């Protein structure tokens, strides 16, 4: 995102829409990213989450990359800011939908294979829950819509793995990594392998 909008985005995530030019610039940026939000909505409705870790069939676990996690957190922040925009325009239903999309994203990511996925999932869910709480306290949404949304959020929260289960998954991941290394020792090229070792005098 544009660096000059970072403070405005942070403010919008607290439930306050920036005034004046900053608010207009943030609104324009959100609208320019509307296709990404629509894709997030579609993805959050899918029954399963799967994110490939590797670029090739012969990659080892040490080569796994998770660049999408940072992007997922950014989408969660964008959805939260857009929810604040929708509330400022009197559209609480759209705000509720944004929070539900974010919670579903958090649930999907949190059920991934690694601890970092679990933690990012928790972070996304926290953004959704904080926003929904603010909306409920504001009195700008009808009680029935809030109740329905909160029941879904509670169900998703309860089916997200605990931190202990996330750690266990990470341990299994680490075990698979060690197995990979042992099976492919001859093909391992460690970054420090060709560096000169300084002599001690």
User: Helical stretch count?
Assistant: 8
Order of helices and strands: HHHHHHHH
Quick one: how many beta strands? 0
End-to-end Cα distance, whole Å, is 51 Å
Largest pleated sheet: none
Number of separate structural domains: 1
**What is the mean pLDDT?**
82
Low-confidence stretches: 190-201
Walk me through the topology.
Blueprint: H1 6-13, H2 20-32, H3 34-44, H4 68-88, H5 92-110, H6 115-138, H7 143-158, H8 163-183
Characterization of the model:
The chain is mainly α and 201 residues long. It has one domain (27-51, 62-183). The chain has eight helices and no strands. Helix 5 (92-110) runs antiparallel to helix 6 (115-138) and helix 6 (115-138) runs antiparallel to helix 7.
Brief rundown of the structure:
The chain is an all-alpha fold. The protein contains 8 helices and no strands. The chain starts with 5 loop residues before the first helix and ends in an 18-residue tail after the last helix.
Provide the descriptors you would attach to this structure in a database record:
201 residues; mainly alpha; 8 helices; 66% helix; globular; disordered C terminus
